């Protein structure tokens, strides 16, 4: 008996084709969604990391710069003796945080409280061989005057969203000598994308019975003139600022911050902002205040 061979052709029906296309679209959409999510997460993480890095850097920089505020050592062999160092030492110790009106060459220079929540200005005095820009302002760099020290005044402020500093020769500011070297007083940028920069000052008026001088309260710069007139001393500085992370990291709504004694502020956009705060004890002014008690 012979069987007739049938030729059968296998194919895909229209329904099967539509199901396959639909599954492909679902899988492709899921893959795209994962890629987009990973990209957003990566940008967010980069913004967080940059904000953290910048904030930690500037707080460390402030601690290094401000720790010696009020320092004046007339016994230092490196101290320039172009002026009366006894009189200069008394001036530095009594003006660790200069105020407007303290200097004849730049009467407006001094610590300032920003109006209506604007950025503050911080100004400090100390003995050093460089200003905050690492300039020697015409003092010695070669033997026998290597690392020559002088009266330095550093100013920190925000301009156009950038935290900047500029340094001065205190002797120039007091009208005792002309400005030389890098005394063009141009500012250098320490940090970009600063939303707010606020400063308060820890003051004391008496020494405790065990000889330890502590801040009794923190005040803004506009309160300092009256306090200084009543024999108060600045023994600590508290700094707070808000920085923006780099890149395209975003949050769902603008962030709000409360810095020190200021009213709350809201970021101008949905970028990633982070607040930082530190308190720096001014050990030189504490020792001076203790001696005056």
Automatic annotation (TrEMBL):
Give TM segment ranges. 12-36
What Pfam family is a match for this entry?
PilW
What keywords is this UniProt entry annotated with?
Answer: Membrane, Transmembrane, Transmembrane helix
Q: What name is this protein filed under?
A: PilW family protein
- According to its UniProt entry, this protein's organism is Agaribacter flavus
């Amino acid at each position: 008996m012979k069987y007739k061979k049938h030729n059968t052709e296998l194919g895909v029906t229209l329904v099967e084709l539509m199901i396959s296309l639909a599954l492909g679209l679902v899988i492709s959409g899921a893959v795209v969604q994962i890629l987009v999510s990973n990209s957003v997460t990566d940008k967010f993480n980069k913004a967080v990391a940059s904000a953290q890095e910048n904030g930690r850097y500037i707080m460390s920089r402030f601690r290094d710069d401000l720790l010696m505020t009020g320092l004046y050592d007339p016994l230092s062999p490196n101290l320039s003796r172009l002026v009366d160092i006894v009189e200069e030492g008394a001036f530095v110790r009594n003006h660790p945080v200069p105020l407007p009106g303290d200097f004849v060459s730049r009467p407006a220079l001094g610590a300032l409280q920003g109006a209506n929540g604007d950025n503050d200005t911080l100004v400090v005095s100390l003995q050093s061989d460089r200003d905050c820009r690492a300039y020697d302002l015409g003092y010695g760099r070669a033997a026998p005057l290597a690392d020559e020290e002088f009266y330095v005044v550093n100013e920190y402020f925000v301009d156009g969203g950038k935290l900047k500093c500029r340094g001065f020769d205190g002797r120039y500011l007091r009208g005792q000598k002309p400005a030389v070297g890098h005394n063009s007083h141009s500012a250098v940028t320490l940090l970009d994308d600063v939303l707010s920069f606020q400063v308060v000052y820890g003051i004391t008026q008496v020494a405790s019975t065990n000889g330890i001088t502590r801040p009794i309260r923190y005040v803004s710069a506009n309160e300092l003139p009256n306090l200084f007139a009543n024999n108060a001393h600045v023994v600590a500085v508290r700094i707070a600022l808000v920085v923006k992370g780099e890149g395209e990291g975003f949050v769902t709504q603008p962030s709000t911050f409360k810095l020190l004694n200021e009213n709350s502020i809201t970021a101008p956009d949905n970028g990633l902002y982070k607040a930082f705060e530190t308190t720096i004890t001014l050990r030189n002014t504490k020792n001076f205040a203790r001696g005056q008690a």
